[in-house]
Amino acid sequence: MLTLKQISEDTEKVIKGLEKKHFEGAREAIEKVLEFDKIRREAQQKLDSNKAEQNKLSKQIGGLMKDGKRDEAEKIKEQVAELKAADKALTEVMDKAQSDMTHELLDIPNIPNDKVPEGKDASSNVVIKEDLTNMPKLGDDALCHWDLLKKFNLVDFDLGVKITGAGFPVYIGKMARFQRALEAFFLDEARKAGYTEIQPPYVVNQASGYGTGQLPDKEGQMYHANLDDLYLIPTAEVPVTNLFRDEILDEKDLPIKCCAYSACFRREAGSYGKDVRGLNRLHQFDKVEIVRIDKPEHSYDSWHEMLDHVEGLLKKLELPYHLLLLCGGDMSFTSSICVDFETYSAAQKRWLEVSSVSNFESYQANRLHCRFRRADSKKIELCHTLNGSALALPRIVATIIENNQTPDGIRVPKALVPYCGFEMLDDKMD
Fold first, then answer.
1. How far, rounded to the nearest angstrom, does the alpha carbon of residue 199 sit from its chain's CA centroid?
2. What ranges in 107-165 are assigned the alpha helix state H?
3. What is the set of domains in the chain, with CATH numbers?
4. pLDDT tens sequence across 259-287
């Protein structure tokens, strides 16, 4: 959530930032926030003035009673009663203005960093780095991953439909082991990089959803357990970042680095018409997430370290990749800057997103009330929060399978062989 300080001190900058993100009605939304804040502050000032007057008058009552001036004392008592009645009305005005302002702020996205390029959609994203060293040369008879999965009996999409519905595949035999191998590999690499592993819940409450910005923005894309009013997580970012909700951290403990494996659940509302075949877009998938809590002056150093970490994983998996700096119109609701990692799927002849690494600056922290205390001044400030996929499995699996296909099976990248115990993904039992 944007802070009132940001909005009031840099109003035009905030509006221009929202327009860069193509947020409709940016100026009107910001003006509403400022108007609600004005109403709230004016009511607070009147309330404070009333309280001061009540204290002043109350002190007079005792003296008048002592001097036998009962009638005068009673008149002052009436004045105090009137002021107290006014207090109630002012409090209601103030609370309503605060509530209206908060609701308005929750619907306003984060503003982009100055380095974010202009643009309305993905066509304006900028390739900032590319490594095609491991680009495969496949023949015309190369199969897409969904055909390879069927050929070697590795994933059954029809069984998933039978059990649950579309987008919930069943992984079989060596593929089930391969999933575990990837998860273990990503977690081990994160641990080596200094991240503390967390095993979080897969369902969260409303407060957690609002804290990281999934609510109200992505409510339609989340699975909701109505009876208990809980949400299935779309990413481990949500529970892990919420570990620090309503916390005041010590500066010396920053940056805090956490990683977590989880299943992820996404309804993907509005994705119809896109290429959803095979593993390209699922409602349930596995992912390892890295999360950082940092102080403002160091958060972009952290962000670059996270980019290097994800890039290192793709190198070890022997995949061709590029990095895309997202333009304003293609960024998420909460991010201030975001780089997408895409790997090249040789059989599909297209790039597939496998990771997003974002710095949210203070946006999430303001919603979370996640703060830290300066070591020298003891001043309390908002943290910066960051997260990234390291990595998401389905599309990584898709590219590994397509790029490493042979007539007899799929060659397993060398880095993964110790984790899964075999060199070829096929339908043969060990």
1. 18
2. 145-151, 157-163
3. 4-106 (1.10.287), 122-425 (3.30.930.10)
4. 999 999 999 755 554 467 899 999 999 99
The 10s digit of each residue's pLDDT in 82-137 is 777 778 888 999 999 999 999 999 999 999 999 999 999 999 999 999 999 999 98
Task: Say how far apart CA 339 and CA 327 lie, in whole Å.
Answer: 10
Per-residue model confidence (pLDDT) at position 51: 78
Contact, 430 vs 422, CB < 8 A? yes
Note the Cα 292 to chain centre separation in Å: 12
293, β-bridge pairs: 256, 385
Spell out the long-range contacts of 150-159 with Cβ–Cβ below 8 A and sequence spacing 24 or more: 152/409, 152/410, 152/425, 152/426, 152/427, 153/427, 154/425, 154/427, 155/279, 157/278
- How far apart, in Å, are the Cα atoms of 64 and each of 68, 70, 76? 6, 7, 10
By C-alpha distance, which of 24, 32, 25 is closest to 7?
32
CA nearest 121: which of 346, 414, 399, 326? 326
- Token reading at 38: 């004005």
Peptide bond between residue 215 and the one before it cis (omega within 30 degrees of 0): no
Place of tokens 């390291």: 390
pTM of the predicted model, to two decimals?
Answer: 0.92
